[in-house]
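Subgroup meeting minutes
Present: P.N., E.W., G.H.
Scribe: E.W.

1. P.N. recapped why we're keeping a running log of single-chain structure predictions: easier to compare across weeks, and new members can see raw inputs and outputs side by side.
2. G.H. added today's entry (377 aa).
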Amino acid sequence: MDISAAQGSHIITVSRAAFARPDTDFLCFGESDVAAPRVAHDALAAAMAAGQTRYSDVRGLPALRQALADYLGGQHARPVEETRVQVTGSGMAAVHVAMAAVLRPGDRLVHLTPAWPNSMNAGRMRGAEVEEHTLTPTTEGGFKLDLDRLAARLVGARAVWVNSPSNPTGWTASAADMAAVLQICRTTGTWLIADEVYNRLVYDGPRAASILDICTPEDRVLVVGSFSKAWAMTGFRIGWLIVPANTRDSFTELVEITHSGVAAFVQAAALAALADEAFVERFRAYCATGRAMAAAALGGLQRVRWAAPPGAFYAFFGVDGLQDSLGFALRLVHEHGVAVAPGCAFGAGGEGHLRLCFAQSPVVLGRALSRLGEALR
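Output recorded in log:
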């Protein structure tokens, strides 16, 4: 696809306006203000001091690959073999590798929406036809997946993209949802690309249902993971991809020609963070506090439709009568000093909504919610 045809990110449009106003409360990115685990910082510094700054195994350091296999096998109902683990230079890099492996020009990619726009654009960059499958809004302000509509849509589709817990909606697939989607894909021969970067950020239990609980190594399933969310390591740029059995060498070749692997010192940081389970629990509690604050603030506003999400760390709320979410988001920056993402950035069904990241300190979030409430009133 010609780069000129790529759809620009409206989130970036808002963020640029926010960067130009220093006192803006910045809630438009999917990023917390919590620092990454101390052990990650220390391990990175130690690795650099030890000279781990040269090229490393493009598959990922053996210790990290094995640690990820052990971690995922411990989290989920089925073991994950190390030979299925590919380390990538961020979750987004894993997305591009998955798309490059599966999609060819003219293929149809069914993508659940509202959704993070980068994954849809990654499909378009491969020349695929991206067909949005919108989640169904509920009367309570949440979302659900219509499996019958999805089954009909996947006939003839090359791949389906499922992000659970979802950015931006917080919708989280149940175990029954996951089983149904996998069975549909097996019937239609469709590749299932599961974006599970928010798997640990749920508020009823230790993790969300995962396709890794039920798929076999032979299934046409790719699972995207990242250290950016549950470990708050956004700037470290490291993720992973779980691939079918006996295919990793091919995926490693794709990593080699896209970004040639991940810096060894960054992998050392990730290895240390992976062992810090207490950090994940503390961070989830931090997000739960923000979720409660958002619920209290948004619940008292007329014309606002929102239900506290079961997963991720966003409030994706509808505003009655809002028809230009980008224009309103820019007004919020210029006139009220608060930056949120416009719903139109997230595809079909997003317009009329706004998204804010509530994984922020109570001081920052409280001030931002006060400013937002004033604007909405």
